[in-house]
Design goal:
This protein has about 200 residues and is mainly α. The chain has a domain of about 140 residues. Helix 2 runs antiparallel to helix 6 and helix 4 packs parallel to helix 6. The chain starts with a helix and ends with a helix. The relative contact order is 0.13.
């Protein structure tokens, strides 16, 4: 009886946690859905002809191409972060945020799988360069999407109730500055990782 009661309490706590953190839960779930779809696509027989595998193979074989890959990955993530930042100020920006997080997960998964499956030293590159880099970039992106979703909801609610959202906007900007700092740290780390990869692997 006591065990059943404890289980019930734990379930209630779990439901309360998920309810209170619904945007974060949905965003993380959509990110992994994007990853899963990318893995399924990359592993599907016959799809390899649609990808320029020669380009992917050069990433792990040519230092210049590898450096360019890191740079363009940085630019792509910058673009996505700026887009997510702008959507936070839109009262109906949530659908765009959801599409962005699925796209982010899909791109990460697809690039990682193609490198690991079809490139010389691809697994080493994914393990020692891509995964550490994307952990930081994806963490920044998930946090940014969560904050944007909260602000978008607050603005939508304020339009209905005619309330001010200056406090929410100030908190949003402060947290986005922290996200930006973490993002820059991730970019510097990515540069160091690619240099170490070419030196030791």
């Amino acid at each position: 009886m006591k065990k059943t009661l404890n289980t019930t309490v734990d379930l209630r706590k779990t439901r309360a946690f998920l309810r209170n953190n619904l945007p974060s839960t949905v965003i993380i779930g959509l990110y992994f859905i994007g990853l899963f779809l990318a893995i399924m696509l990359a592993n599907r027989n016959g799809n390899q002809q649609f990808f320029k595998l020669e380009t992917f193979q050069q990433i792990t074989q040519n230092n210049t191409v590898g450096q360019a890959f890191i740079f363009y990955t940085f630019l792509l993530n910058c673009f996505l972060l700026i887009l997510v930042f702008a959507m936070g100020f839109c009262a109906i920006g949530t659908p765009v945020l959801l599409l962005c997080i699925v796209a982010k997960g899909f791109i990460c998964g697809l690039v990682g799988m193609l490198l690991a499956l079809y490139c010389d030293k691809g697994i080493q590159f994914v393990v020692f360069v891509l995964i550490p880099m994307q952990i930081i970039f994806s963490l920044c992106f998930i946090c940014a999407c969560t904050q944007s979703a909260y602000l978008s909801k607050a603005i939508f609610t304020s339009l209905l109730k005619k309330e001010a959202v200056q406090t929410e906007i100030r908190i949003y900007l402060q947290r986005y500055i922290l996200i930006g700092i973490l993002f820059i740290i991730g970019a510097v780390m990515s540069k160091l990782l690619i240099v170490l990869f070419w030196r030791f692997i």
